[in-house]
Amino acid sequence: MSKTAVIFPGQGAQVVGMGKDVAEASAEARAVFDRANEVLGFDLATICFEGPPDRLNATDISQPAIFVTSVAIWKALEASGLAGELDPQAMAGLSLGEYTALHVAGWIEFDECLKLVAERGRLMQFAAESKAGGMVSIMGLDEAKVLRLCEEASEGQVLAPANFNCPGQIVISGDQAACRRALELASKYDARAVPLVVAGAFHSPLMEPAVQGLKTALAASKIKFSRIGVVSNVSADYHADPEGVRTLLREQVAKPIRWQASIERLIADGFVRFSEVGPGRVLTGLMKKINRSVKALNYSTANLLRAAVGQGSA
Fold first, then answer.
1. SS3 at position 159
2. What distance in Å separates the CA atoms of residue 56 and residue 127, rounded to the nearest whole number?
3. Whole-angstrom Cα Rg for the chain
């Protein structure tokens, strides 16, 4: 029997209107948004459904918004019976999505996880506002060449790989001036560089202030072992125990996201079907670049109703 892993998107997947059709079609999904509003003390659902875009895109809002929308979609899939048919034996999530994976896999309860995600977003937003930073997507280079590009462009400032997304696509992160120099130097390395619209230098040493705050929040959180394995972004290996989860989630904020290696670990373990659950199709697209031989399904707000009758979007 083929093994299925469920994967969850991270920040950047947000779009105004996400989750609205799911909440209207599924009482279970609507209940997730209602509970989130109670836990957070403000109307997150309306921001997801109606915007405004600048509020939804703010780090402190987009992170809980994506988490809640992804969980709502999963609950709708459970209610439809499709989640049971998928029978996932492992999970993973890109950056923020790792929290969604840990919740759905049974490691962290919903209220606890939502509070962690909201605090993570707040801390990362504050760190971004404290030090001007940016991120640049580099296409066409391997890790060694990206490291050389970062070294040349840094000129003593912070600039380092932040996301190893798929073959030929590595995102770098650091001081704004260093990111601008990397854009100018990319052609020298025969690479294509695209600046990303982000609040700050995520997954770089500039996020270190957020690491310390998150350490406190994680130490106070209830985390329990679950039989469903979740792959860590930092180690590209399975979380072993609750204390390890705390350590790796803390480190994740200022260390690179090794998404390609995480997926390759799952494939090496025999996973041949991957189902992206959450807004957007980013991970589905990356999957096809990492390994086209595995099956990639997408269950987003736009196609959930088709998925509910067994027609996942490939």
1. strand
2. 18
3. 19
Amino acid at residue number 114: L
Indicate the length of the chain as a whole number. Answer: 314
Pairing between strand 271-277 and 295-299?
A: parallel
pTM listed for this prediction = 0.95
Q: How far apart are CA 147 and CA 143, in angstroms?
A: 6
Active site residues: 95, 203
CA distance 8 to 67: 9
The predicted model gives 256-283 an average pLDDT of 96
CA distances (Å), origin 69, targets 90, 135, 195, 268: 20, 25, 27, 30
Confidence category of residue 312, pLDDT binned at 50, 70, 90: very low
pLDDT of residue 1: 60
Q: Are 49 and 43 in contact (CB under 8 A)?
A: no
pLDDT level of residue 80 (50, 70, 90 thresholds): confident
